[in-house]
Every structure is written in structure tokens, then in C-alpha cells.
Amino acid sequence: MDHTEALTRYTANFIDELAKSGLKEVVISPGSRSTPLAMTVMEHPEMKQWIVIDERSAAFFALGMAKQLKRPIAIICTSGTAAANYFPAIVEAFASRVPLVVLTADRPHELRDVGAPQSIDQLKLYGNYVKWFHEMSLPDNDQKILDYARNKASRAVHTASEGNAGPVHLNLPFREPLIPDFSLENLWGSYNHSKQLSAVDGRKRIDQEQLAVLTDHLNQKKRGLIVCGPQINGEFAEAVTSLASKWQLPVLADPLSQVRAGQHHKDVVIEGYDAFLRSETIRKEMKPDFIIRFGAMPVSKPYLFFVKDHANVEQYIVEEHAGYREPAGNKTEFIYADSKLLCEDLLAMDIEPDFDVKWLENWQKMNQVAKKHLMNASHHGAVTEGSAVKYLMEVIPDESTLYVGNSMAVRDLDTFFMTTPKHISILANRGANGIDGMVSSGLGAAATGKPTTLLLGDLSFFHDMNGLLAAKHYAINLTIVLVNNDGGGIFSFLPQQQQKNQFELLFGTPHGLDFSHAINMYGGQHQVVTNEKDMENALFASYQYEGLSVVEIRTDRTSNMEWHREQWMKIEAELLKGE
């Protein structure tokens, strides 16, 4: 049998089946052993390719793209440590339920564990952080093997998407020579008419009897909370706020819940809870009778303290598929159902719960006090990390995406992002909550063509500066709001801040870098702002610019910490005074 023909037909059938199964975007990191995969993807008429040299950056780029498009993206790399560099993004994808199809090329079996170059043990390399692993056979032109290749490709796309989405890993060994022959007749095989594996994934809902049991039980209560954690269902906001309005219950909406932005009813939405739940007195006074939480645990640590303070309160967590996300460890009843459908089914029931109207009013009053202080807070005209978020949300275009970094960036978004009629999708890497790969993730989301803004801190930017190459290579439009406090600002809010002798070295970690050099190297536009007016003008200008635009806000970690705490103290003082 001719080796090149077997290699070509095997790889072509595999890649063609990925396309037939709905996978259209592939992020490739160049290498030798992955030549058959990379060249075949480039040849396929339905595949769009993105070349990202660094594997860590490539995997996070694909992660951001998959989050934006809500469908699987494939990543391809060569053998050896290239595959290991995918690991951080795969961990994040698994934890945040993002579909990736990971294709690692490998040495053939006779070159493993014999000291051959660029050879490591790639079998189950990512351990429990993938939904499925499969070691592919060596290429063969036998029809049964071609059918097998198609079956595994189709299964990979399906498995990455079904249930709780996540990454899958296929390891593909290849012998040399590695270059396919694309002149062969019937290159893509005989399956062009349809994909090999087909599945219908229905939407879950609970039946009328279960709904009646739930509502009968809740009707015995007076003070309930609806909590919306991170989730990506764009249809959910209208359903949950309609239900809350009918039941007259407050909705604590995480910034990543997609509930703070949009045209839906928002009178019951409470977005300032992170600020006033910092008060232990208020947390204890506002004890609910039950909590219904949709999606993952909210970003807010004061909310975590709140549920820990009330560990005996009945809690229901609604997840669309089976899984366990309850870090407080409280007693919980899980409801596995489509969130939107559950809200609509509850709305359709002929019941009028007799909940305490004063309860909602109290949450609304506290929310108004918090918003008054947070939105009117100033620091002598200088831009603070909080006001940066406030001005960003005023200027950010409608129908766009905000990708937010971890540490202080997402927490400031939680505090200062108030409800808006704009349609803004909020994305973040909140599975493992790392600061690595954020630039690449933002660029992956922006590469889809949707207007995108990336908000992140200086250490996150530093960790992934080489990700900016994709912006230059593909002329991707992205506005980056870079909050530079010369180090790890979040540690100033933690107990480590009291360890004066070691704090700067171990936690503050000042870098003293001038980021303009890196931004210029990658062809970006850069502007430093220090006051509110300049920030507003710089943001407006950045959205008119084609390509990479970085608006850098320089702040001081110590004064930022003091400014935040001053606002929290004012809010607590007014609320406790008004009792």
C-alpha cells in the first residue's frame, strides 16, 4: 500500500468529517509532525484557519472564539511540549464548560520512549480535564479505517458540545513522510452528503407535578431570593426578570449573568449587592427563607459570605445539565432543567405567591444607596479603577462584547457595572479564574467580527503579551482597557497586605514596564489616560480605530484600595443609619 495515499485519504476523511459535523474554525500552531493535519485543514474548502505560533496563546485564542460563537473550535499542534502548552487553556475550558476539539500530532509507536526527539507521553496528557480521550490509529487506506476516522471525528465534535460542553482530546500518530498528496481523485471520500454521527440533544424541563411540588413548598415562605450567576444563555434574562416581577422577588444579578444588560424589565434587578453585603450586620439582617440560583456561583465574595452566614437556608440550584457547582458546601437541591424554560413554566402556573413585598423594597432601597455612592464617587478628577469601569460601560458600543479579566478587573465590573439597555455580552475565563491567556482569549472573541472590548489588569496583560501577534497578523479590531497599577492590585485587599516586609516582593510584584513598546511592536495604537475626560475621549477614539487599540489607565494600588474602602464604608454607614 502506498504510504502517502493512505496518509492523505485517512487525514482527509477525518478533517472532512469534522467539517460535516459543524466544526468550521481551526487554530493551528505550526510544527512538523502535525503537517498532515495542518495542510489538510488548509486545503479543505469549508474550514477557516487561524495560525497562532505559540501553543498556549493558540489554545486561549480558540477558547475565546468558542465562547463567542458558542460552538466547538479545533486546535492543532505538533508533538512534544507543544501539546503541554495547551494545558492551561484546556483546564479553563473544562472548568468553564467551553467546547474545544484538541488534536495533538504524535510520533508513531516505535519512536516513543526510546529517546526520540520531540517525543513525550501524550496519552491522556490532560488527565481528567477532558471529557473524552482517544488515541487514533495509524493512517490506513482500508475503508473500515476511513469509516473509523470519520466516526471518531464526528464523535469528538458531538462529545465536546453535548451536555456540559468541554474539551476532548484526540492524539494522532503519523509516520514520515508527512506531506499529503492533494492531487488524488475523490480526495474527501464518499461521505460528502452527510455527517456520520447524528444526535438530537433536547432541552430539559421538569413536569407539572414537580412544578406543583416546588411552588407549593415556596408558597409557604415569605422572603426569597433569585440569584443569577455566570451563564451565557442570551434568552434567559427576559424569562427570569418576568418571573421575579410576578413573584415580587429581588434578582441578584452577577455581571456575567447576561441579566444586567438588555431591553428586559430591570426594576427587580439588584446589581449593587457586592458593596452592601460587605457589612456583616446587613448580611445577618437580610436572611432569606429560600434562594434559587441559576448558573454558576457569583463572582462576589461578599455573596459567598452571605450564603455561608445562612447555611441552613433552603437553596435550589438550577443547572441545565448534571454537575456540582456549590463551593459554599451548603445543603442544596439541584434542579436539572433549562433555565429559560423553567422560568416560563413557573410563570405559566396559575399561582400568586404571597411573598413579603417589603422584602423586595428593602433590597431595592439598599441597591439605590449603593448605586448613588458608587456612581457619584470621584477621586479629584483622576481615573480610579472603579470609575474606569463606569466610563467604559457608558461608552462601549451597543451590540458588542466585553471580555473581562480576572482578579480586580472582574470585581470592579461586579461593583461598577450597573444595568443598561444596551445589548452587551459579558465573557470571562471564570472556570479556573487564572490571569494567563487573557489577551489571546479576547482576540479570539474579537476575531469572529463582533465588536469586542477587553478589560484587564497589567499582570494579565504581561502574562500574554505575545498573544498580540494575532492582532497584527489578522488585523483584528480590539479595544483593550488596560488598568495598570504596577503589580497585583487585588492583594492589597487581602490579609497579605499587612505583611509589610514581604508584601511587595511576593504579592505586590511591581514590574515597572512601559507597555507602549510591546503595543507598538505589534502595530497597535496606545494612549495613556489619567483623568476622566481623557478616558472618555480615548475610548470614543478607540472604537473608531481599525485594529488594536489600547487605552491604558495608570492608577496607584494603595490609593485605589483606600478609595474602594471609603465607598464601602459610606454605603454601610448610610444603610445602618437609616434603620
Fold and architecture overview:
InterPro entries: DHS-like_NAD/FAD-binding_dom, MenaQ_synth_MenD, MenD_middle, THDP-binding, Thiamin_PyroP_enz_TPP-bd_dom, TPP_enzyme_TPP-bd. Residues 220-404 form the Menaquinone biosynthesis protein MenD middle domain. The protein is α/β, with parallel strands linked by helices and 579 residues long. The chain folds into three domains: 3-173, Thiamin diphosphate (ThDP)-binding fold, Pyr/PP domains (Rossmann fold, 3-Layer(aba) Sandwich); 208-358, Rossmann fold (3-Layer(aba) Sandwich); 377-569, Rossmann fold. 40% of the residues lie in helices and 16% in strands. The protein has helices at residues 3-20, 35-43, 55-69, 81-84, 87-96, 143-161, 208-218, 236-247, 273-276, 280-285, 301-309, 339-348, 357-376, 385-395, 408-416, 438-446, 458-463, 469-474, 503-508, 516-521, 532-542, 557-577, and strands spanning 25-28, 48-51, 73-77, 100-106, 132-135, 167-173, 224-228, 251-253, 269-270, 290-294, 314-319, 333-336, 400-404, 424-428, 452-457, 478-484, 525-529, 548-554. The strands form three sheets. The chain has a six-stranded parallel β-sheet, with helices on both faces. Strands 9-8-7-10-11-12 form a six-stranded parallel β-sheet, sandwiched between helices. Helix 1 (3-20) packs across helix 2. The radius of gyration is 26 Å and the shape is globular. It starts with a helix and ends with a helix. The relative contact order is 0.11.
